[in-house]
């Protein structure tokens, strides 16, 4: 891939990658570091970038690895993330957002926080980043069957989460 | 199960709440700028040079994945098998403790071998040699300094003679002749000393004035149980053998440990030989103290003074024969009497000196060996209990150290293996990513 193409691709992938990292790490500062780390790595190993559509899954694989490195390697992360999470709770000040969506978002992020990371990451990649199960399998280096079972397990647990129970009932009622 | 669209809606809203840093991409470009230029210059295919920062980030701790854990477990098992084999020298894990202690024993014996190598005495004879060597050395140390003060004193004696002699120089000359008469006997004894004693006592230039040396020694011997009387008898025989005599002998019987003491008087020439022989009678030499005092100058001085006084007495006797009045006679008689007293006193001193320098004194104390272990039945129950618990504690500590040592070694190796596995995992991961 040419340097300019790589640059434009990374620039356009940056917001989605950053927000994915935010959802996984629940800390904007950590997410920014993780994504920066991941993009530098992508640059270094740009020769290994698979051609075509596969590169998206590959990019998320690097981003997820960077996030997991922070989650697992940095013992201080848990404390910092709690502080940051208080700040980074979805803002209600944005008038464009429906109040209902904002409440849903807060409940969902709380419920995600309670999910183990091996379930949280596929959920974020599937339902925020929009990766297919096959792409998620590449990103988390697991078989597609594992991704499928993890996703269903995550959805089952989220439905059982008390924070989301009202939303599930509301959805069923609709 | 929660609906997918609910998830998508909620996650989308939550994600949108996170504001993407506007300068995030620019900062990335800044970080990449030098590399972009380098890559642009070298072409797209060339691998860009890595900065130290990226490498530092690389060193960030990664927890191994399932495959990594399996690799670590395999490495740990391999280490756990290899360590006992390595430590035990192939004797198996059960014999690793004994093998390690044997290895340490070997090491200590090797060390002692090295030490004996340094002392230049081969093998097992080293301790015996080293135990024996100091004995002549001790005697040598005692005997060796003698010649130096000797000659110094003699010089000083000569100076004293020169300064104090005054008008009585003739008397001193005769005194010198008298001491020359002793010279034959003294010279003989000196020759005997050099023949029978340590070579260090040999004086290169035999002095014209015979040596008068008073030697004394105290020897404490320890003998085996029941050997006290036998050793005392041998010491008495030794005195006769060395042409001396036993001046004093005491034996203390009764009690747990009988002991005895003999005072041997042997010719000065035989002193060193006697000491060496007496040392061998005991199983252990508890202490040995010898001293040698050069009394030659005092002896010579006494002789000179006696001779001078004798001349004085002769003069007074001549005067006495010429005395005419009773008063003169009484006065001269009083002087003769005084001089006679002085002469006798000095002669007595000289006799003592002669005796002391002719026969040395060796006091040997013979003690029966006392059992090293204090009788435990005298101890109270409490003391015994404390002793027992202390010894058990020490044994326990020894056992713990013995167990912990190999475990610590294994732990160190496991940690090293883990670090190596982590590095390998990271390298593999880097290649995959």
Overall mean pLDDT of chain A stands at 81
Rg of chain B computed from alpha carbons, rounded to a whole number of angstroms: 47 Å
Helix/sheet category of chain A? mainly alpha
Helix content of chain B: 55-70%
Biggest sheet of chain A: strands, sense, closure? none
Gap from first CA to last CA of chain B: 34 Å
Structural class based on helices, strands and sheet pairing of chain B: alpha+beta
Mean pLDDT of chain B: 69
Which strand-content bin applies to the residues of chain B? 5-15%
Please report the total strand number of chain B as a whole number: 5
In angstroms, what separates the terminal alpha carbons of chain A? 48 Å
**Succession of helices and strands of chain B:** HHHHHHHHHEHEEHEHHEH
Shape of chain B: elongated
SSE pattern of chain A: HHHHHHHHH
What is the helix tally of chain B?
14
The radius of gyration over CA of chain A amounts to 17 Å
Q: Looking across the biggest beta sheet of chain B, what order are the strands in?
A: 2-3-5-1-4
- Beta-strand portion of chain A reads under 5%
Overview of this protein structure:
The complex is a heterodimer of chains A (174) and B (433). With 174 residues, chain A is mostly helical. Chain A contains 9 helices and no strands. Chain A is 78% helix and 0% strand. Chain A is globular and about 50 Å long. In chain B, 67% of the residues lie in helices and 11% in strands. Chain B has 433 residues and is α+β, with helices and mostly antiparallel strands. In chain B, α8 packs parallel to α12 and α10 packs antiparallel against α11. A 5-stranded mixed sheet of chain B has the order 2-3-5-1-4. Chain B contains 14 helices and 5 strands. Chains A and B meet through α1, α2, α3, α5 and α6 of A and α1 and α2 of B.
